[in-house]
Amino acid sequence: MRVIVVGAGSFGSWCAWNLLNSGVDVTLIDAWGPGNSRASSGGETRVIRTVYGADDFYIEMSKRSMDLWSAFQSNLNEPLMEFTGSLWLCGDDDSYVESSRKKIESLGMRLENFSVKEATKLWPGIDFTDIAKVIFEPCAGFLRARRSCDAVKRDFEKRGGQYLQATVGSIDETKRTNSVRLSTGTTITADQIVFACGPWLKQLFPETIGRYLNISRQEVYYFGTPENDNHFTQERLPVWLELGTPIFYGIPEVDYRGFKIAIDQRGEEFNPSVDDRTPTEHLVELTRSYLQKRFPALAQAPLLESRVCQYTNTPSGHFLMDRHPETGNWILGGGCGHGFKMGPAMGEILAEAILRDKPVPNPFRFEHLTSQVNKTTQFDHA
Length: 382
Description:
By secondary structure, this protein is an alpha/beta fold.
């Protein structure tokens, strides 16, 4: 079998890698390269966690992905994933975290509860004022994002896969097809084509899929940490998430790149190819105000770097994995801000669907694009 995978982000590269290791002839294509600065899989780091509210299916997927990431980085001897643990900072409502506890424990992991007094001693860089519940998830941490995409692509090529850097031309959504035309002027064919293009799915398939997708602008900031203060490094501080209004989350200083912080709320509609990625002043100031409250030592921290990426949001907040109803090609996407860590499991599931006709998970089918549920963040209980 010959398969073309369009898109070398976390979903696409892992799909290509899994298919290749099952004996398939695979060509992986990306317009700007794995983990590039326009891609949803670009940037320095991503959170990896197993807390997913009461959604047992995503908890299982996250655990499976952790196992696959661990095996992959062990084989390559590259530090792609590190376990710092994750702090969940909650108000009176800790139901999102607590509803994951039973499933997490059934998978051999655990959650730990700390009083605010205990947490203050353990993590003195955090001011826990107004925090009612502190829950620690030991089996959580971060992934080095762009480095991971590049590592999967390199191993894919080493194992015999073909990688092409090119743009795929427009798709006729009304006809079945087994070929793509590239910006290089060539046309390549295959038995199956997988489009794992993140936000570009909206442009390639505007009628069937695109009208249901919202591509939202998301800003991430890296602030400088104080001299001779190691309270904010990956050795001393976990990944953290505060389930307030709005939701803030962050990753400690990794590889000397600064303290990462972001707001998990949907931004304005965004075109990943051409829109400017300059940070928004009022969002930077909102983030500074939060730092002054929660991380007082960073109150005057300089902004070292910023990133503007994007979420590809489906109404239900679920991923997409299904055949296009007209072209017959596979569509893989809809990361919704929480998909990067799931790349290994998503690639494994789609490889099983292509090679053995195994049904894809029901929540990932196109029919859920018309769902009346409309999640506004990945942490909604809806």
